[in-house]
């Protein structure tokens, strides 16, 4: 069907009638400045003119038509005049705003024709004379809530309606009005959507976009950007958002499955070290157990080794013992022979006078023994006399003199012993005291070095315990002394202030929020110290008034930025406003005072001075933000105490030395007392007596030759006897030694056999091989012998214990790592491990979880992930891709349809316009299409391995995450999504002006830039005409019996040339469209030829109201000519 031959024959179309729904009338009540009555514009389905002076109300009527047809969210009022959205609105039209007046507050507020008690009605009747059908659209506005815009309901009727008949006499009961309308067969709607669906169906308008074009037509003068115009006005919005939602929903399941896979892999990654280390720990435990058992098996193992050595040694000893017994027997025989010879010789000597000589020898021998005893006494006595500084006695009188001095010496030494014992106890006590003080100072220093404050350690430790139990930070419960410091310029008062604030400084400050917990903890805990704490309110009020400038409170700094600052200031000024007095007279005058010496004067004439410690003893100081000075003092004190300890230890050593020397002297005195007579030490008398007897023996022996021979023989025999006795003794000793050795070895073997026999069979199978295997390492390849077996067993035991200790430490460290890994796993997966403790006892449970994940969990998650990826997501991506391709093809097809319409329009003599399309250069869209294609590449023949699945997932995720909106980029991603899924944005459009005869291009347009005003409007009318035909379904396969034939052009001819205006009007006339032209008076002569009806709008500037008059174009022309004649006559006269 040709674009210019649109009067197609339809069944039921009346002969000679114009097809399509056209505006028969428009009625408004209380709309803008049309006030107080129903105003009707009646074009009667014909092309009409709505005219009047600028500001008379023409656009108000056009906006009424727009309100009836266009969705509220899209309505742009007075669009042709480029008014802002704030100037006109439903509220301004319903209230009838016409200006502004000054409010009582001095601000401007709208001046209106109507209050909120009035209602407004818009009504338009469209008629299709060919089908003899009428459709009335109406909207009713009223106020339900003064704080909200007007409420409205919508009406569609298959008949003609009137405001005066159908929207009146309802006594302001809107529900009654709706009921009445429904009962009359009228359809009433509460929302625009259903209302628009119904009237669009009746008008044959399939696309909602057609109504957008209707509004766009009102103000369109030129095509600024052809691509944007075609996208917005000539192409239907593709329905791709639903597909995107499906993708997002499918991806939610896929992403959950992917997260399950990643979670399982991460769990396996965390559990593997636990299992591997657990297995290693088990092996180390087994080795440790083996070492434990080997330690127990070491003695039996060595016993078995020893038994074998003893067997060989016993056999050797038994052979040696036989030989030793024979040698002893020979020595005994020889000994008896010598003894017989001695006896015979002694008989011979006696027979020759030897009896007297023997008696003399016996006497001399006895005297020698007595002399040996006296010599020992003499040496002992000389040693003791030397210690007591006494001379050795030479006579009995000297001996008696020494003995008389011994009682006094003993008494003196006993007295000295008592004094030395007392001195020793005192020195020991001082040493213990100094050592205890040193330990206390060292502990205090250790504590002070770990912090900055000077509070005593026992208070710090108690607070630490409190905070640990209540899970609080120590900084939340400060001691007052930690927040106070004597100002540097007031250093001279530091000792006195420390003494005054000592107890307060040790007080703990407890915020209100922690008070209940702290109070309960203190009440139920045995503290071991005196603790004072204050409940500090968060709303502490500052103290009013100014303190004395020399008050203690003003000589202190409060730690900056502490939340306790106000409270501390108040407490200091209330409790420690003592004036620091330089002189005694001032001290006497002030009611609260303190001196630098530390004397404190309190209320009630109470005076106090505590000198138990020196006032400058920094060890007692507790105030300050830094404890460096206190550390230095304590370090010096520590050195003094160490020096004191060294002194007392030297003193103790000296006392013990004196005690030893005194005891030795006391013992010497007692020993000397034991020697009772001088004869006991008189060696010279006995020596003289022995010499006399020896001289007599020699005389007797020299008196007989036979006797001398016999005595010489006896001497030889006695020598032989001694020698033989030595031989016999050695032989007996050797035999005894061997017998003892044999007995000992036998006992050793019995014990070794017994020990070895106690060995369990399993021990020989496990521990013995272990001991044999490690023997070389443990014993450094030393050979086990009977002599070395004990030492080597000890060495082997030491090696085992050392290795066991090393292994125990390694096991402990490994268990620590395992438990730490378990804790980390539990922290990350609290739900799965709610009933599993991080302990070695739980290792089987962790191994079970790992086994379950590897054998079932991960494979199942991977299977579901791949299934969802391939069967759902990638398939859905492919469907989405197909949908976009379908939309592409649809757009190309629709452009061809529109080109069919454009080809029927003579744009210029011999030329026509053709729309051309090309792919967009937009980087976002191009990248999106590449990404989308990549998602489905290899989908049919793709690998099933994990890497392929992960790659595809990441490709899909990159797109879906932008569809969903990434964190922090939600708005930009929403804009990106809207752009890339709208297939219209995939195209760029241009207009090609071509010769009909040759189809060669005459000119190429991407917009109307660089063209004259008339050319711009001409291109706009051409493109607009084709768009209207397409959207209203007036041509080709989309033509329908019902059609909408009404178009409004508002002020479109204000700047256009007469030629362009005639071109446009001719074009719309050929399209058989009803035009409502809204234009000022000056353009009427150009368009009068095309107009059948005129609506003339006039505005009363006094009453601020608009009025409407309906006349034919002929009547308008007659009145216009009459006005021109009257003006001419007026000028002539």
Detailed description of the structure:
With 1133 residues, the chain is α+β, with helices and mostly antiparallel strands. Among the domains are: 22-45 and 74-207, no CATH class; 354-451 and 627-703; 460-621, no CATH class. The protein has 29 helices and 24 strands. Helix 23 (923-936) runs antiparallel to helix 24 (946-964). It comes from Acetonema longum DSM 6540. Keywords: Coiled coil. Residues 324-377, 631-734 form a coiled coil. InterPro entries: P-loop_NTPase.
Sequence-ordered SSE layout with sheet pairings:
Blueprint (H helix, E strand, L loop, with lengths): L21 E10 L2 E8 L6 E5 L5 H12 L20 H6 L1 E6 L5 E5 L7 E9 L4 E10 L8 E7 L5 H4 L7 H10 L3 E3 L2 H12 L5 H11 L6 H9 L6 H111 L2 H34 L8 H54 L7 H14 L13 E3 L7 H12 L2 E4 L3 H10 L8 E4 L19 E3 L6 H11 L3 E2 L3 H6 L3 E2 L5 E3 L3 E3 L19 H47 L8 H19 L3 H53 L3 H13 L1 H5 L9 H40 L14 H60 L8 E9 L3 H14 L9 H19 L5 H12 L5 E9 L5 E5 L7 H20 L13 E5 L7 H13 L3 E5 L5 H4 L5 E8 L4 E8 H20 L1
Parallel strand pairs: 3-22, 3-23, 11-12, 14-15, 21-22
Antiparallel strand pairs: 1-2, 1-6, 4-5, 6-7, 7-8, 8-9, 10-13, 15-16, 16-17, 18-19, 19-20, 23-24
Protein name: Putative cytoplasmic protein
Keywords: Coiled coil
Pfam family, one: SbcC_Walker_B
């Amino acid at each position: 069907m040709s674009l210019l031959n649109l009067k197609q024959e339809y069944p039921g179309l009346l002969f000679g009638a114009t097809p399509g729904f056209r505006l028969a009338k428009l009625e408004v009540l209380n709309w803008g400045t049309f006030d107080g009555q129903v105003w009707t514009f009646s074009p009667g389905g014909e092309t009409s003119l709505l005219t009047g002076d600028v500001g008379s109300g023409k656009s108000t009527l056009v906006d009424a038509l727009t309100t009836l047809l266009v969705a509220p969210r899209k309505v742009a009022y007075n669009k042709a005049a480029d008014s802002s959205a704030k100037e006109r609105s439903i509220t301004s039209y319903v209230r009838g705003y016409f200006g502004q007046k000054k409010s009582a507050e001095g601000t401007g507020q709208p001046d209106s024709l109507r209050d909120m008690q009035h209602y407004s009605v818009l009504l338009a009747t469209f008629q299709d004379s060919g089908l003899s059908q009428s459709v009335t659209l109406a909207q009713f506005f009223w106020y339900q809530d003064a704080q909200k815009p007007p409420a409205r309901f919508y009406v569609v009727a298959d008949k003609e309606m009137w405001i005066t008949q159908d929207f009146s006499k309802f006594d302001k009961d809107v529900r009654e009005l709706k009921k009445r309308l429904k009962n009359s067969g009228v359809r009433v709607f509460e929302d625009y959507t259903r209302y628009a669906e119904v009237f669009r169906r009746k008008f044959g308008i399939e696309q909602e976009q057609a109504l957008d074009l209707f509004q766009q037509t009102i103000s369109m003068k030129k095509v600024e950007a052809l691509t944007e115009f075609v996208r917005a006005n000539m192409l239907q919005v593709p329905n791709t958002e639903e597909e995107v939602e499906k993708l997002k929903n499918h991806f939610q399941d896929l992403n959950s499955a992917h997260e399950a896979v990643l979670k399982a892999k991460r769990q396996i990654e965390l559990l593997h070290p636990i299992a591997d280390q657990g297995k290693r720990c088990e092996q180390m435990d087994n080795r440790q157990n083996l070492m434990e058992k080997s330690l127990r098996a070491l003695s039996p193992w060595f016993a078995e080794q020893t038994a074998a050595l003893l067997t060989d040694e016993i056999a050797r000893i038994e052979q040696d013992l036989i030989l030793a017994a024979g040698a002893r027997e020979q020595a005994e025989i020889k000994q008896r022979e010598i003894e017989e010879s001695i006896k015979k010789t002694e008989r011979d000597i006696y027979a020759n006078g030897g009896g007297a000589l023997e008696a003399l020898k016996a006497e001399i021998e006895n005297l020698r023994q007595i002399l040996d005893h006296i010599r020992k006494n003499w040496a002992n006595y000389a040693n003791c006399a030397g210690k007591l500084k006494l001379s050795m006695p030479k006579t009995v009188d000297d001996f008696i003199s020494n003995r008389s001095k011994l009682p006094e010496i003993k008494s003196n030494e006993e007295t000295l012993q008592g004094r030395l014992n007392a001195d020793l106890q005192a020195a020991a006590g001082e040493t213990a005291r100094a050592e205890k003080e040193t330990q206390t100072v060292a502990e205090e220093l250790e504590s002070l070095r770990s912090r900055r404050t000077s509070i005593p350690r026992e208070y710090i430790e108690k607070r630490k315990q409190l905070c640990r139990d209540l899970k609080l930070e120590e900084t939340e419960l400060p001691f007052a002394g930690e927040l106070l410091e004597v100002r540097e310029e007031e250093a001279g008062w530091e000792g006195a202030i420390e003494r005054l604030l000592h107890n307060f400084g040790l007080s703990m400050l407890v915020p209100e929020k922690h008070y209940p917990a702290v109070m309960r903890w203190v009440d139920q805990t045995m503290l071991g110290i005196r603790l004072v704490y204050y409940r500090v309110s968060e709303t502490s009020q500052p103290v009013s008034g100014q303190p004395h400038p020399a008050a203690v409170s003003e000589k202190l700094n409060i730690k900056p930025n502490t939340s306790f600052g106000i409270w501390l200031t108040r407490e200091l000024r209330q409790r420690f406003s003592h004036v620091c007095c330089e002189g005694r007279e001032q001290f006497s005058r002030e009611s609260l005072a303190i001196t630098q010496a530390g004397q404190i004067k309190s209320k009630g004439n109470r005076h106090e001075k505590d000198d138990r410690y020196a006032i400058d003893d920094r060890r007692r100081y507790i105030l300050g933000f830094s404890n460096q000075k206190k550390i230095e003092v304590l370090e010096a004190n520590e050195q003094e105490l160490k020096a004191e300890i060294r002194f007392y230890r030297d003193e103790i050593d000296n006392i013990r030395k004196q005690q030893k020397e005194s005891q030795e002297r006391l013992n010497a005195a007692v020993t000397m007392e034991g020697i009772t007579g001088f004869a006991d030490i008189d060696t010279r008398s006995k020596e003289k007596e022995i010499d006399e007897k020896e001289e007599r023996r020699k005389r007797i022996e020299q008196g007989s030759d036979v006797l001398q021979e016999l005595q010489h023989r006896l001497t030889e025999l006695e020598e032989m006897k001694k020698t033989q006795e030595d031989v016999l003794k050695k032989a007996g000793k050797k035999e005894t030694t061997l017998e003892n050795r044999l007995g000992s070895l036998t006992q050793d073997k019995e014990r070794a056999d017994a020990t070895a026999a106690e060995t369990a069979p399993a021990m020989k199978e496990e521990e013995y091989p272990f001991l044999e295997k490690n023997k070389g390492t443990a014993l450094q390849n030393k050979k086990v012998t009977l002599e070395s077996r004990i030492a080597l067993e000890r060495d082997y035991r030491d090696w085992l214990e050392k290795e066991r200790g090393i292994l125990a430490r390694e096991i402990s460290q490994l268990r620590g790592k395992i438990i730490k890994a378990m804790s980390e796993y539990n922290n990350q997966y609290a739900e799965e491990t709610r009933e599993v403790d991080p302990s070695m006892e739980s290792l089987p449970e962790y191994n079970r979880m790992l086994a379950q994940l590897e054998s079932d969990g991960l494979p199942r998650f991977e299977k579901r992930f791949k299934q969802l990826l391939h069967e759902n997501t990638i398939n859905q991506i492919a469907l989405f891709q197909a949908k976009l391709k379908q939309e592409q093809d649809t757009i190309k097809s629709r452009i061809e349809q529109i080109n069919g319409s454009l080809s029927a329009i003579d744009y210029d003599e011999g030329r026509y316009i053709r729309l051309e399309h090309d792919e967009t250069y937009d980087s976002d869209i191009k990248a999106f299409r590449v990404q989308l294609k990549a998602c489905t590449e290899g989908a049919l023949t793709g690998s099933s391995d994990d890497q392929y699945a992960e790659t595809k997932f990441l490709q899909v995720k990159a797109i879906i995450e932008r569809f969903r909106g990434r964190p922090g980029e939600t708005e930009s991603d929403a804009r990106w999504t809207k752009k890339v899924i709208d297939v219209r944005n995939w195209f760029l459009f241009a207009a090609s002006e071509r010769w009909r005869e040759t189809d060669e291009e005459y000119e190429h347009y991407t917009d109307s830039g660089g063209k004259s005003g008339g050319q711009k409007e001409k291109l706009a009318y051409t493109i607009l005409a084709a768009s209207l035909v397409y959207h209203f379904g007036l041509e080709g396969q989309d033509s329908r019996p019902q059609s909408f034939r009404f178009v409004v052009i508002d002020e479109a001819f204000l700047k256009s040339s007469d030629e362009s205006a005639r071109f446009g009007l001719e074009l719309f006339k050929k399209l058989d469209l009803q035009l409502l032209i809204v234009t000022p008076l000056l353009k009427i002569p150009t368009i009068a030829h095309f107009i059948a009806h005129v609506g003339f709008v006039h505005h009363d500037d006094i009453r601020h109201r608009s009025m409407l008059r309906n006349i034919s174009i002929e009547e308008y022309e007659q009145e216009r000519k009459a006005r021109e004649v009257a003006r001419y006559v007026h000028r002539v006269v």
